[in-house]
Structures are given as C-alpha cells and as structure tokens.
Design goal:
With about 425 residues, this protein is α+β, with helices and mostly antiparallel strands. Helices cover about 30% and strands about 25% of the residues. The chain has an 8-stranded mixed sheet with strand order 6-10-11-18-17-16-13-12, with helices on both faces. Strand 8 and strand 9 form a beta hairpin. Helix 4 crosses helix 13 and helix 6 runs antiparallel to helix 8. The structure holds 4-amino-1,4-dioxobutan-2-aminium adenosine-5'-monophosphate and magnesium ion. Magnesium ion (MG) binds next to strand 17. It is found in: Cytoplasm.
Length: about 425
Amino acid sequence: MNQAKDYVGQTVKIGAWVTNKRSSGKIAFLQLRDGKAYFQGIVVKADVNEETFELAKGLTQESSVFVTGVVQEDTRSKLGYELLVKDIELIGESHEYPITPKEHGTDFLMDHRHLWLRSTKQHAIMEIRNAIIYASYEFFDKNGFIKFDSPILSGNAAEDSTELFETDYFGEPAFLTQSGQLYLEAGAMAFGRVFDFGPVFRAEKSKTRRHLTEFWMMDAEYLYLTHDESLDLQEAYVKALIQGVLDRAPHALETLERDTELLKKYISEAFKRITYDEAIDLLQAHENDEDTDYEHLEHGDDFGSPHETWISNHFGVPTFVINYPTEIKAFYMKPVPGNESRVLCADLLAPEGYGEVIGGSERETDYDKLLDRIKSNGLNPDDYAFYLDLRKFGSVPHSGFGLGLERMVTFVAGTKHIREAIPFPRLLNRIYP
Ligand code: 4AD
Ligand code: MG
C-alpha cells in the first residue's frame, strides 16, 4: 500500500493484518497494515456479499487476511490512500492479541517485543534505523572506503578489559568483540580506507537509557588526515546520516512527531568543537546556575551523562569534545604533541540529551610508545602482537572513529530510550525475547 498512488482506481489484492476495527450495521472500518504501510479498509455492507460483511465485522486484532478492493485517495489519513474493500479472505485467525490499543507498561511491552515491533511507533523507529544503515554504506562508498569485516570472536580486548563477555573457545578463553577497530587498523594498512559495521558487546553494568550490552557499531579507519580533517569527515558522515533519514523515511519522522526543523538545523550549521579542558572550565563556570543539575568536576575527571547533556544543549548543535585526559581514554590513542597528559581524540555529543554518538581518535603509530601504553594499562603485549606488528612494517599516521548505531537512531528518531532502537535489545536485565 506504500505504492498506492500508482494504483488509484484500480483493484488490488493485499495481504494484511487487522490492527483495529470499528463497525456499524452498514459499514465496517478496518485498520490494516501490510508490513510497509498502515491504512484503512472500508467495507460497505451494500457493496459486498453478506458473508464478507459478517467476516469483516468479526475480524479480531492481528488476524491476517487477503483484502481485495479499489485504491482511493483519502486526504484525512497519513498515507493519503485507503481501500474500498470488495472481498476478504481470512488467512490466519488471531486469538486474544496481548497488545491492545490501551496503554501498557514498558516491561509488558518488552516481554512482547516480538509483537510490539508491529506497532506504528516501533515500525517507524526501525525504518529510521534502516535509512541510517543505507545512508552509511552510501557515504562510505562515495568517500573511497571499502567494507572490511572485523571478527566478532576475539582473543583480546579492543577497549577496556573489564567490559568483556568471555566465552570458551575450544579450551581457550575468547571474548565477544567490543569494537572492530584494531582489526580495521590492519585493514587500513592494506586498503587505505576501511569501515566495518557489526554487532559489538559490552558487559557494562550500566542501567541507563543509553546503554545496551549488544549494539551495532560502524567503525571507520583512514590514513594521513589531520585531527581537524578527521573531524570534518565525521561531521560530514553524521550530516549524511541525518539527511538520509529525511530523504528516505519522512513518514517515519512524521509518525514519531520528530522536529525536522531541528534535524535540518544540525545539517546546515557547523558542529561545535571544544577541548575537554574548555568544557570543564565551562561546566565549572555554570555549576551554580539555577537551571543546572550536575556534579562539580575537576580537570582530569570524566563526564557523566548530565555533563554531556549540558554541554551539547549549551551549544544547541552536535558538539565535538576533543583532547581528553590520557588516563580516562583507551591505550591506543596518540598524545597531543607536547602534552602527554591529553590525547588526540574526540567524542561527538548529540544535543537534546542523546549523549555520545561517536568516539574516535588518532592512533599511536610508534612501536615503543604503544608497547608502553599496553603494559601500563595492564594488558598483555602477547595478545596485541598483531596490532604492534602494524607499527613495525611501514607505520603511517592514521585515525578512526566508531558510531553507535542505536545512539544515532534514538537521536534522529527522537525516542528517549535506546531499547527501542534495536529489534531485540540486550540489556543488563534482559536477554529474552
Ligand atoms: O567510544 P567507544 O567505546 O569507541 C570505540 O569503541 C572505538 N574503538 C571506536 C573506534 O575508534 N573505531 O564506542 C563508540 C560508540 C560510542 O560513541 C557510542 O555511540 C556507542 O559506540 N556505544 C554504545 N552504544 C550503546 N550501548 C553501549 N553500551 C555503548 N557503548 C558505546
Ligand atoms: Mg566513547
């Protein structure tokens, strides 16, 4: 039915589900969905045989049917079209569908995630997710990247060894990957510009609206760009993703009542860039303001989500915070020239409280310095022999970043909780369904 405009006045047969229904003695209004669109079917008693009208009146929520009818314009509906039904064939009856039009609690909906996905809001969020994935492949292709798939099972920690999910690999410990980055760096030395896109895992005990234990990451790795040029690339990428959703999923944004003027503003205005230390100064200067609600931070402390939210809201556009303290960032980042206590990295903070959507950095290229960092971080150099090798055989300056797909989806869709941004969320307290 999403192609309805090409079929106005024609008779079509569509496989659909009944989401709701209302009927009087002479007419029945069926709310239908066919997987692509939500639309109305009108059954006029005088127009159909008696059996069909009785069937229409008795249809239960989520029963599947073939409906045959004439497509006509309907300016009152979002889709703009409806179906004047002539015939109905029941395919599969539905009994006591648990998600009724009344309000349900989140736990109940999460327990029924396999069915909840059929609802208009969840459908719209998944369409936005799809549009972002599509735009991502398109962006990387246009910019000379090839897709280079990193493994999911790994013998080492890409980020922080405390967040690993461990499994048994034929008697040896193995871990579910936290990021494809280290392997992508090998790819960059072979292909120049590479990206990956796949599930990553973090055994984070964070129960927040921004954390999943399994999420999808787009990592990219590339050579020779300066730190600023690297941020230019990331900025162009995020703008291309937002534009991709505006182009490809406008109905979904409308269903979610997302403020598209704001999205357009994020595309047309330059993202803000400030250093970590400037951000701390700013937070300290505003910590006693009436409308602020975050804890005092010293230079060297990491941000919590209230700080991230405040910073990006302060600027009203996505904001890169650059050059964080070496101590609170991963072992592979290159120090700022002349200042070993800060690293050449950036987190991109989305406005409106959506938090960090990208983490990226320039990588350490020197063998000895990298080895020192691996050791001082309490990691075993043997586990990183392949990674160290990349610094032995023609090491070149390179940088990369990782974007959390579900963070990006919540931001563009304007949904408050990350659990709705992935078909089947894995959370601290949930691995079913
Ligand atoms: O900042 P992170 O940890 O960076 C890396 O993993 C780098 N290796 C990426 C790279 O340079 N190639 O994670 C990247 C992004 C974050 O900015 C955030 O958007 C998302 O992944 N993310 C999460 N999303 C959902 N749930 C979680 N628990 C997440 N942890 C990180
Ligand atoms: Mg990060």
